[in-house]
């Protein structure tokens, strides 16, 4: 076993493990304790299956059809049928990393020993992940209740050797062919196993975990871009003093203020060049950046608590309890995850909004305190960054639409048996789009602020060492500095990649020390 192997045990998993498997192809291995727990819970299910009394998911139909008792000879067909019938997704394919997170998190629950799945089924799930086989999962098919049913069903279909999947080379082929090519025997599902593979919050949880990873990078990046904008606007860093934030002790606010203060350390621009247009206070988008960024940080921390609880959970219905009971429950309801997914979309939209307001201020000659209109080289002949702000504004507007909560909606299903659902999958899908958009918004502010800082430096003013490091790294990444108009999209794309890959944070930390 090496450092790239994630061991799946009986007590949940970590966010880092999810990201390692989903994004970085870490191998998966079942612990001895997990194999033992799987075998023990399976003995309980087998004993119940042999009794005449109906047990949901073992010897009955599903959902609104649970009243029918299924005879022994039809139970294998019952488990195959639930997978085939529930694999009813439609629309575009879901991203590979989301599907891998989905499969890994279902394996995590299966390995808990609370689902009654046989060890060999769990091992096949690990084998499929390790082979780099990714089931084809579609955008639509989950209401975030009774689990992410259609997405998980498409994954279970691959375990059966049916449907389509993507191989490690990126080619989509029949799943049976891919399993055979990697020496994996398709599973033949027995009592409860089909249901256990479908009934979890794994898709929405996987997307939450990855969004938290991305948003932590973006919030630190936005602290840096806010500092750069403050500097370019000749603002004052006095509002970042720790004693001011200590008297309103929201943790994230203090962290963001400290990040900004460290980026601005040693600046020759801040607070010293306002004689031509005296300002008692900077505009809200500059002065209140720690308050807005910090509130978002606190929201991330709350969402991480919810994600941690869910990562420690075994979500299935019914569940096998340590005392041998198999009990129905409602733990598959995605409300806890759905709420924080929506909350994150709200704070991401507000962060994008304040970034755009600072960008617009940098470009407006009436509010930029001496910068050229639109940061253009020869304003009138050149348009500078005028339309870059249009693009940013369009993204902000989209973010506001994405901030409308999905979890406030519910639509009845399964003949009114499942009459209240979370819509958590939908909340997760729109959050992924919001995170992508926010990355672009932060990148546009970075591009504008670094250009403005360079223009100040050309006037003989000395930017902070951290600002100089950010400018140099961005230029080295292919986003060019001030000058006559040119094809701008490649520069913005370079800035987007720079932020997305965490390179902005990496560029300034050798100067500032580690930023939170």
Automatic annotation (TrEMBL):
Subcellular localization is given as: Cytoplasm
What Gene Ontology molecular-function terms does this entry list? histidine ammonia-lyase activity; phenylalanine ammonia-lyase activity
SUPFAM superfamilies (UniProt xref): L-aspartase-like
Which UniProt key words apply to this protein?
Answer: Cytoplasm, Histidine metabolism, Lyase
Looking up Pfam families in the UniProt record yields: Lyase_aromatic (PF00221)
Cross-link type 5-imidazolinone (Ala-Gly), residue numbers: 145-147
List modified residues, type 2,3-didehydroalanine (Ser): 146
**Keyword match Cytoplasm:** yes
EC id: 4.3.1.3
Read off the PANTHER family from this record. HISTIDINE AMMONIA-LYASE
Q: What is this protein called?
A: Histidine ammonia-lyase
The species this protein was found in: Streptomyces nanshensis
Q: Upper lineage ranks?
A: Bacteria, Bacillati, Actinomycetota, Actinomycetes, Kitasatosporales
Gene name linked to the record? hutH
């Amino acid at each position: 076993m090496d450092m790239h192997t994630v061991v799946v045990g009986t007590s949940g998993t970590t966010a880092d493990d999810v990201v390692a498997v989903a994004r970085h192809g870490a191998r998966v291995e079942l612990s001895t304790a997990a194999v033992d727990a799987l075998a023990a819970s399976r003995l309980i299910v087998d004993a119940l299956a042999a009794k005449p009394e109906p047990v949901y998911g073992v010897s009955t139909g599903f959902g609104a059809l649970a009243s029918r008792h299924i005879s022994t000879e039809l139970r294998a067909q019952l488990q195959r049928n639930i997978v085939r019938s529930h694999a009813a997704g439609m629309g575009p394919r879901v991203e590979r990393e989301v599907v891998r997170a989905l499969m890994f998190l279902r394996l995590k629950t299966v390995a808990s020993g609370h689902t009654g799945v046989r060890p060999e089924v769990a091992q096949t799930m690990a084998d499929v992940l390790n082979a780099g086989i990714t089931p084809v999962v579609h955008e639509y098919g989950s209401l975030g209740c009774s689990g992410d049913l259609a997405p998980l069903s498409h994954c279970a279909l691959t375990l059966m050797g049916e449907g389509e999947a993507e191989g490690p080379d990126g080619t989509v082929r029949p799943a049976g062919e891919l399993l055979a090519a990697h020496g994996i025997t398709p599973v033949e599902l027995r009592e409860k196993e089909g249901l256990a593979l479908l009934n979890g919050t794994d898709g929405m949880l996987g997307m939450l975990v990855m969004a938290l990873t991305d948003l932590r990078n973006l919030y630190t990046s936005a602290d840096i871009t806010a500092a750069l904008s403050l500097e370019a606007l000749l603002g004052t860093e006095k509002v970042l003093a720790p004693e001011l934030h200590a008297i309103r002790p929201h943790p994230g606010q203090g962290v963001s203020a400290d990040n900004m203060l460290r980026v601005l350390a040693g600046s020759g621009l801040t607070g010293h060049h306002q004689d031509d247009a005296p300002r008692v206070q900077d505009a809200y988008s500059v002065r209140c950046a720690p308050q807005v960024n910090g509130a978002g940080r606190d929201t991330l921390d709350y969402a991480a608590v919810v994600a941690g609880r869910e990562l420690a959970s075994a979500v299935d219905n019914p569940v096998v309890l340590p005392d041998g009971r198999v009990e129905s429950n409602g733990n598959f309801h995605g409300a806890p995850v759905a709420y924080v997914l929506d909350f994150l979309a709200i704070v991401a939209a507000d962060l994008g909004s304040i970034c755009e307001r600072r960008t617009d201020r940098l470009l407006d000659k009436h509010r930029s305190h001496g910068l050229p209109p639109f940061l253009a080289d020869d304003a009138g002949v050149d348009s500078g960054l005028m339309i870059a702000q249009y693009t940013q504004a369009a993204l902000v507007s989209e973010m506001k639409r994405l901030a409308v909560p999905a979890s406030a909606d519910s639509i009845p299903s399964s003949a009114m048996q499942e009459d209240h659902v979370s819509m958590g999958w939908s909340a997760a899908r729109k959050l992924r789009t919001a995170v992508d958009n926010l990355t672009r918004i932060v990148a546009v502010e970075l591009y504008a602020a670094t250009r403005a800082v360079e223009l100040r430096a050309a006037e003989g003013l000395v930017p902070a060492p951290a600002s100089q490091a950010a400018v140099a790294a961005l230029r080295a990444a292919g986003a060019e500095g001030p000058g006559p108009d040119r094809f701008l999209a490649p520069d913005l794309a370079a800035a987007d990649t720079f932020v997305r890959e965490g390179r902005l944070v990496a560029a300034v930390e050798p100067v500032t020390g580690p930023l939170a």
